[in-house]
Amino acid sequence: MKQNPNSLSLRAGTFALLLALSTSLRAAETTRLDSLPGSKVRIEGTSSIHDWQTESRLIGGSLEAGAGFPTEPGQAVKPGKVDAKVDVFIPVRSFKSVEKDGKPYSDKMDEVMYEKLLQPTAPRILYHLDELVLKETPKDASGPYIFDAKGSLAVAGVTNPISMPIQVTPLGGKKLKITGDTALKMTQFKIQPPAPAIALGMIKTGDDVKIVFEWMVGQKAAAAPPKQ
Fold first, then answer.
1. Which residues constitute the domain of residue 149?
2. Count of structural domains, the chain
3. Would you say the C-alpha torsion 181, 183, 118, 102 has a positive or negative sign?
4. Is the Cβ–Cβ distance between 89 and 45 less than 8 Å?
5. Contact 155, 117 (CB under 8 A)
6. pLDDT tens digit sequence for 66-107
7. Element spanning 3, H or E
């Protein structure tokens, strides 16, 4: 039985319209938040002579928050899986070794770090979010939302799955502070813990490290229209 060409055309047009409406609604429900100044990430480790730490003040990337993601203080949301897309990058050369009080430590250590992280061929540390689940809502309007985050972390050209708890604190005006920490091993990313040649290999660096971060995101101000 032959179908009416006009009927087929109408169905195709209806499908295209529904798809366009669905895409428009999805875009309307999504809030894009970009990295802001004030972010920082710290890597802490140990060695046979002293603990060490290195910091970066540059976290790039964005968060696309869907319906059900809290973007304002005290926002009512239901625990469970939340619609969010996150991609983050940190330039390897933005890391600098520091004392515990934040003062610069050693340029030599920085160069060893860049070498171990394969900076020339893997110039960025990358994170991609795969799943975000809201576990706890705030106890008051200024408190954080507690999530479990699952994603992938790429360091020195090696990518591994990573799970960690994070806290999302809305600050008002579509601005968020996202904090968290996780423990990793260098060898997970095929990084051999350094044994600096300057000490004839007597200084041994521990395999275990801790990553602590504070990521500030918000809506960027709309560009001013050009003057007539």
1. 30-218
2. 1
3. positive
4. no
5. yes
6. 988 999 999 999 999 999 999 999 999 999 999 988 899 999
7. none
